[in-house]
Amino acid sequence: IGEWTLPGARFPLEMARDADAGSNSLLTYQLTSDPSFSLSMKEKPGGKKQPELVLERVLDRERQTSLELMLTAVDGGDPARSGTVQVRVNVTDANDNPPVFSKSVYEARVPENLPVESLVLRVRATDADAGSNGRVSYSFASVPDAVRALFAIDSENGEVRTVGPLDFEANNKYIFSLEATDGGGLTDHSEVQIDVTDENDNAPEITILSLSSPVPEDSPTGTVVAVVKVRDRDSGENGQVSCELSGEAPLSIVASSGGSYKVLVLAKALDREEAAVHELVLRASDGGDPGRAGTGRIRVTVVDANDNAPVFSQAEYMVRVPEDVPVGSVLVNVTAKDADEGLNGHVKYS
Asked: What is the mean pLDDT of the segment spanning 231-256?
């Protein structure tokens, strides 16, 4: 009997036979008490009665898959004699139960360097029905293509695996819906939340926003020479950056309030005559383990200032000449040099 069968349905049972005659063969029937069934008698030609099983209430296969009843036939003799037969009612399934996920929300945390085809989580839905009505398959509900490009679900076992590389910096959380469907088309839905954790997979990046070069050599200390932006796309300690200048640079680093901008200022007076060009390397290191670093090169040219006076090759020239030397005669060549360049280093005599 199907569990969808409505109350009042009748099911004929086998009639008993009695070899006696007369009242000794007159039969009555009795059924063991069960709230789901009652016994009814149907008149047959010749005065015989056909026992019928009458359904009193809807059956539920998920609650009880079968019922055992006992039908007894009693004759009219004295003493009465009886015979019994067992009636087994098997309840056949209707797709009256949808699949049900074990959780309304499934959560997982995975690192962004998780290899492709790695298991992220496993979902499970059960269906109280039998056969194909209780067989569950899994699929994505309405999800964007970006999710399908990164994740896939096994329709048979409910395993969610990666099919593409994850990137914390691109997206650190994915929320999407899954659907469980039984063989009869009934469904249930559940939500999946996947948090992607950061790995130190990005090196600091240095961008020179402005550079004042050449710099006059008489510029005062504290003069801004360059403004750079330092950025690390990672988060937490992986994105915390410290900077340093290599070599004996005449510059020092001043961090902005946010820390992402660095200002390079003169830390000491310049001297073009000592070094006309400064080649600097700015190194930015993050706090990851293992750490990553990025470098930026800065070239600063020093412009001459007239900070050097001419210097004679000798402080005093001693010349001996005869008193009859002709007018216009060269008495001595004097030389002076100036360490500056250009017009600042051009010497005139008087």
From this structure: 86
95-131 pLDDT, tens per residue?
889 999 999 999 999 999 999 999 999 999 999 999 8
Count of other CB atoms within 10 angstroms of residue 151:
21
Provide the pLDDT for residue 257: 67
Domain ranges for the chain, please list them: 9-90, 100-197, 205-303, 309-349
87 phi, psi to nearest 5 deg: -110, 115
Residue at 318: amino acid letter: M
Does residue 165 contact residue 109 with C-beta atoms inside 8 Å? no
Q: Are 85 and 71 in contact (CB under 8 A)?
A: yes
pLDDT digits (tens, 9 = 90+) for 53-95: 999 999 999 899 999 999 999 998 889 999 999 999 999 998 8
Q: Per DSSP, what are the bridge partners of residue 37?
A: 34, 55
- In 70-104, which positions are buried (b, 16+ CB within 10 angstroms) versus exposed (e)? ebebbbeeeeeeeeeeebebebebbbbbbbebeee
Name which CATH class applies to 9-90. Answer: mainly beta
- In the CATH hierarchy, which fold is given to the domain comprising 205-303? Immunoglobulin-like (2.60.40)
Tokens encoding 170: 């691109």
Task: State the chain's maximal CA–CA distance in angstroms.
Answer: 189
The secondary structure of residue 60, as a DSSP letter, is -
User: Quick check: pTM over 0.70?
Assistant: no
Q: DSSP 3-state assignment of 338? A: coil
Q: What angle do CA 195, 120, 200 make, to 5 degrees?
A: 50
